[in-house]
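Q: A reviewer asked whether we had any structural model of the full assembly, not just the individual parts. We don't, so I'm hoping you can provide one. Inputs are below.
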Amino acid sequence: MAVRKPPITTREYWAPGHAACAGCGCATGMRLVTKAFSEAMEEKYGDPDAFAIAHATGCMEVVSAVFPYTAWKAPWIHVAFENAAAVAAGIDAAWKKKGIKGKILAFGGDGGTADIGLQALSGMLERRHNVVYVMYDNEAYMNTGIQRSSSTPYGAWTTTSPPGKYSVGEDKPKKWVALIAAAHQVPYVATASIGNPFDLVKKVKKAAKVDGPAFIQMHCTCPTGWKSPIEKSVELAKLAIETGVWPLFEIENGDFNHIKIQSPGGGAKVKREGGKVVAIEFKKPIEEYLKMQGRFKHLFKRPEAMEELRNQIKEMWKVLGVEVTLPKAEE
Amino acid sequence: MAESPFKEDIERVQKEYSEKMTLGAVAVIPGSSVVNKTGSWRVFMPEFNKDKCVRCFLCYIYCPEPAIYLDEENYPVFDYDYCKGCGICANECPTKAIVMVRETK
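A: Here is a predicted structure for the entire assembly that you could use as a starting point for your response.
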């Protein structure tokens, strides 16, 4: 039998020995993104190492750079919580001036992107820097002890949105930074997930190859903050796609009329009209995704909150121009 | 048995690391976190059955550490120095070639 080739480069930019929790979905994300990025750099510039990373404060920064050690095998800079995009833009400006060929990768968590770093991100996108910004979205401030962020979904438990007699947990809808980034009419914006690594790699490579800024919102599981079993990290991320909680889409040049939507799989029926997805009929109920996580446990005793979450997911898909039907779990 | 892709990093950090504070607290040795043998965190360890493996590379792709690398024939090799025993590889393995067993020390 011939030796099969791995689908991705065996070069590693993320070394073991970092302090991420066992089963950390974000660590898988970091590893895959840097691998894909280096493949794209090799294809574009002929040098797999032609990139530098600016990293906002967040889980992956804390676990990877415990002084005096670092888990990174690429030029990497840790900056303050709010300005990963600004520093990446600065590196890009310096590289342009010095004539260095390459692209800058910026990482930020959902807190560092959706809340604290939003204006730096907006500025970077608007100035059309040659930067790929990857937001790893684990849906709360996990490294400081699971506080809510604006990217926390409706109904989720966090330490600052505890459910109880007068509260359903987080009571605001999730902020979709990918849609905000797309409104800047940048060349490439996408959502991705570690639950579909091949799609993630494809999108990172595409983002790395465009001229100008690109933004990727990557769904990552956090077993600690979501109170889910550590071995189910990838399965959960997959379920989020298959139940419709996490959409996979691409928006090029801010063209909201031609949003490319990836098929969610999991038996979902996708209806297309003229090459465009107009309706998706999901077969797996969102309960299947929610029941594996302790942070949504209370929703099963509150049918009205569950219905509200379902409505919010439908509304979010409507923004993407897709009519979805979400099945209800059988009793 | 293939060599770990981090062998050079381990040797380099053993040779070059010093207690002296660097200017600006810069971590000068790339991948120096390899000195932290996180394998001690593990409760369950992955056991690999080569006969069942179809080389789909899913365990290799998903491993967050990475504590899985590939040998000459591209079969996965488990690096127990770093494996935290999360069990994602066993959970995602389509042929159940990887099973998690309780570790006895």
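A: Points you may want to mention in the reply: The interface with chain B takes residues 3-8, 10, 12, 14-28, 31-32, 64-74, 194, 197, 230-235 of chain A (CB under 8 Å). The longest helix of chain A spans residues 25-45.
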